[in-house]
């Protein structure tokens, strides 16, 4: 028997708990949300203690949070199996101390993160997150973010199976990280990516691959931190292929950078996997970096190194990326005891040439020849060294470092510091504006949810109980050519338009639906995929409703007897089994996402949008009650869509599963567009990766060809590029599609079974892809 394990009980779902939780699905009740009868929202402090119901209670409160709420976590250990999501502004999550309030994800089953947040004016303080499958705390696209007294840790010591990042603000603005601890990350303990205006202070990063990493970031102060026992201590990187590039204005000062000699345990394929053990401060490609008043000691390979991205010897075709570090000022540091046991290919090679200890400050010697004036770089773009005690210097002269020159005795690294002595104008301190005035809760968008009916049957969408999914009058069934894969579920799709309103045709993107539109999708499993007449098990019905303020979406979970479905606030799971198309019995737990998880996939430029109903993907026939007809032609004939041309002149998306619907490239691109591009696009939640899988994208690099991964962690599968033409076994894309690892599988929500047919098709596509660039 199937079993429903919903995160929401009948007793808990009262009117009060529905505020901010569901969708106003009925057209009439929707309009009441802004009337004077709507409840007034008042911020409050909510207190939580450990217990078996904590995950549900806490995630429900995260969904219902309003600006000004404080979520107080009492001392104790909280066990969670699924990642947490927060999207509301002006929320504080507070514990009783980083060693007293502990959120452990040791038995995580869903979500590759501990906490994923995107609200502005966010404060996270005085608690710990341990043993997540991937990232511990990720904050995406938020302004005014404070991490204070937070600890992230993988408690089993340094392992390549640990999560990638501890504290991970990305594409944020005004970020303060203070008095935090990060331990055991397989990439970076504290990682600040593509962010503007940052302070990292009084933190400790230990036993990570990278202790603190500032990447593609503008305006950062990193000071009074202790970084020790990492592979690399402080890293300031700039990487190609990202939305925010050419980071600059970074100050590293008054830090203790001690004994960062841990063997590199990053999964292969990640950028930090190339960092030599024993790296103290590593600056790569970033401009305007000032390093001063630091205590740097006993880092076995390179105490301080300044290198271009070219030293990575990785392909990049990002025309807007500047690979050279310029305007680097290193002064008044205490540097000692380093370079005694060099690591990595370069370290060992330099050891054989110059001996040990290696000099304290290393420069790869690569400069942008186009910027030379009278044969020299302008002073403001140069490397300048001053008052670093007895620190020695090494110019690797990387462009001439090759076996032929070494064998011929023509290679001689430069050790004369004189050309680099001098000063640059000190960078200005970073000033944050963190204390934005909290905005009061308004009786508009935040109150859209309160009138949602508890039972699906109250919406009147189906005839009878709805078990047959026969639409009621005014409910229009439809289907898609290429669909979003969800563990081999079947899907019933419907549209309900408000009376007298029409859809406006759009040739690209989601059709322009009128306010009041409802999109309905029911998920089910056929009892026997070989014989649909054997019936099906309905799992959930998701509703998307368009209001003046935007789209809203939520789910109803079908009961065991299949007589109705109940509104679900915190999501849930449905145990189900079926006979697959190969005749074998299969079973799974179907995940019903919580409201905030829905937003993570349906977000485009921080606004909720539907994914499926695009003209090109709806340009197909459907078997209506009256007979077979093209769906767009039907809408036009029924006067339900305006400005629509005839279907014959409308683009038709390829069917990835039908070899007669298009060529191999068209079928694969259709699949990637439908299944991946809602996140992997400039406005999606995976925009920080720079990978763009929209059908309209024509740049091979943005599609992943020879593109290096960003923030992949174990998701790289030990591979160096997203797509390697001709070699699917070396392409990260294939690993992501085939993996069952929480930290790697894609999509990471609603996907617990490998879509083998898509894997086979994309494997063939990469195998046959023209190999325009030779692999190194």
From TrEMBL:
Entry-linked InterPro entries: Beta_helix (IPR039448), Multihaem_cyt_sf (IPR036280), PbH1 (IPR006626), Pectin_lyas_fold (IPR012334), Pectin_lyase_fold/virulence (IPR011050), SO_2930-like_C (IPR022269), SO_2930-like_dom (IPR022442)
Pfam families, per database record: Beta_helix
Record-annotated Right handed beta helix domain positions: 111-236
SUPFAM superfamilies given in the database record: Multiheme cytochromes (SSF48695), Pectin lyase-like (SSF51126)
NCBIfam families, per the entry: beta_helix_1 (TIGR03805), chp_HNE_0200 (TIGR03806)
UniProt name for this protein: Right handed beta helix domain-containing protein
Organism listed in the record: Gimesia aquarii
Record lineage: Bacteria, Pseudomonadati, Planctomycetota, Planctomycetia, Planctomycetales
């Amino acid at each position: 028997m199937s079993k429903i394990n919903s995160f929401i009980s009948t007793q808990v779902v009262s009117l009060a708990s529905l505020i901010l939780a569901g969708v106003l699905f009925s057209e009439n009740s929707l309009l009441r949300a802004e009337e004077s009868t709507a409840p007034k929202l008042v911020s409050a402090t909510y207190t939580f203690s450990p217990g078996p119901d904590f995950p549900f209670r806490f995630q429900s409160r995260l969904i219902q949070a309003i600006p000004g709420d404080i979520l107080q976590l009492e001392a104790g250990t909280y066990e969670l199996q699924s990642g947490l999501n927060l999207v509301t502004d002006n929320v504080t999550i507070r514990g009783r101390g980083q060693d007293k309030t502990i959120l452990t994800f040791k038995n995580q089953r869903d979500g590759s993160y501990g906490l994923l947040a995107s609200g502005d004016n966010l404060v996270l303080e005085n608690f710990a997150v341990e043993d997540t499958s991937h990232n511990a705390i990720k904050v995406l696209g938020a302004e005014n973010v404070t991490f204070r007294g937070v600890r992230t840790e993988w408690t089993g010591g340094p392992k390549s199976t640990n999560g990638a990042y501890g504290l991970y603000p990305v594409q944020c603005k005004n970020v303060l990280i203070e008095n935090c601890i990060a331990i055991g990350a397989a990439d970076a303990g504290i990682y600040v990516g593509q962010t503007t205006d940052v302070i990292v202070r009084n933190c400790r990063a230990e036993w990570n691959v990278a202790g603190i990493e500032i990447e593609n970031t503008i305006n950062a102060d990193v000071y009074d931190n202790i970084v020790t026992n990492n592979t690399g201590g402080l890293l300031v990187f700039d990487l190609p292929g990202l939305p925010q590039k050419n980071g600059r204005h970074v100050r590293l000062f008054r830090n203790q950078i001690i004994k960062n000699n841990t063997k590199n345990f990053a999964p292969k394929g990640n950028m930090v996997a190339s960092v030599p053990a024993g790296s103290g401060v590593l600056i790569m490609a970033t401009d305007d970096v000032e390093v001063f008043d630091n205590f740097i000691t006993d880092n076995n390979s390179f105490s301080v190194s300044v290198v271009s991205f070219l030293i990575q010897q990785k392909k990049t075709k990002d025309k807007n990326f500047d690979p050279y570090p310029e305007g680097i000022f290193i002064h008044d540091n205490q540097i000692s005891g380093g370079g005694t046991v060099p690591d990595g290919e370069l370290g060992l090679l330099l050891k054989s040439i110059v001996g040990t200890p290696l000099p304290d400050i290393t420069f790869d010697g690569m400069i942008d020849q186009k910027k030379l004036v009278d044969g020299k770089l302008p002073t403001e773009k140069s490397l300048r060294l001053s008052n670093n005690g007895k620190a020695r210097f090494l110019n690797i002269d990387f462009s001439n470092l090759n076996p032929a020159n070494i064998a011929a005795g023509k290679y001689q690294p430069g050790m004369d510091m004189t050309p680099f002595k001098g000063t640059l104008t000190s960078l200005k301190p970073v000033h944050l504006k963190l204390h934005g005035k909290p905005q009061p809760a308004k009786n508009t968008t935040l109150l859209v949810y309160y009138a949602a009916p508890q039972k699906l049957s109250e919406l009147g969408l189906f005839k009878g109980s709805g078990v047959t999914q026969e639409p009621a009058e005014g409910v229009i069934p439809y289907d898609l050519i290429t669909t979003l894969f969800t563990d081999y579920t079947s899907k019933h799709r419907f549209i309900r338009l408000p009376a007298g309103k029409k859809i406006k045709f759009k040739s690209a993107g989601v059709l322009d639906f009128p306010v009041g539109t409802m999109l309905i999708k029911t998920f089910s499993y056929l009892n026997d995929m070989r014989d649909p007449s054997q019936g099906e098990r309905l799992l959930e019905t998701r509703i998307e409703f368009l209001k003046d303020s935007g789209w809203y979406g939520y789910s109803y979970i079908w009961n065991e007897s299949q007589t109705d479905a109940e509104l679900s606030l915190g999501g849930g799971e449905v145990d189900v089994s079926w006979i697959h198309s190969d005749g074998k019995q299969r079973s799974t737990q179907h995940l019903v996402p919580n409201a905030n998880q829905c937003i993570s996939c349906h977000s485009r430029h921080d606004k909720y949008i539907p994914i499926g109903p695009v003209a090109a993907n709806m340009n197909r026939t459907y078997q209506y009650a009256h007979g077979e007809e093209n769906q767009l032609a039907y809408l036009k004939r029924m006067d339900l869509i305006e400005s629509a041309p005839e279907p014959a002149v409308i683009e038709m998306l390829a069917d990835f599963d039908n070899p007669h619907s298009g060529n191999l490239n068209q079928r694969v691109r259709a699949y990637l567009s439908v299944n991946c591009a809602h996140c992997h696009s400039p406005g999606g939640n995976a925009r920080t990766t720079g990978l763009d899988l929209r059908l309209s994208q024509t740049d091979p690099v943005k599609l992943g060809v020879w593109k290096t991964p960003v923030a992949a962690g174990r998701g790289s599968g030990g591979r160096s590029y997203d797509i390697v033409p001709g070699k699917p076994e070396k392409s990260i894309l294939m690993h992501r599609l085939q993996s069952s690892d929480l930290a790697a599988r894609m999509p990471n929500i609603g996907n617990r079974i490998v879509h083998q047919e898509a894997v086979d098709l994309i494997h063939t596509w990469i195998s046959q892809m023209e190999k325009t660039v030779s692999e190194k």
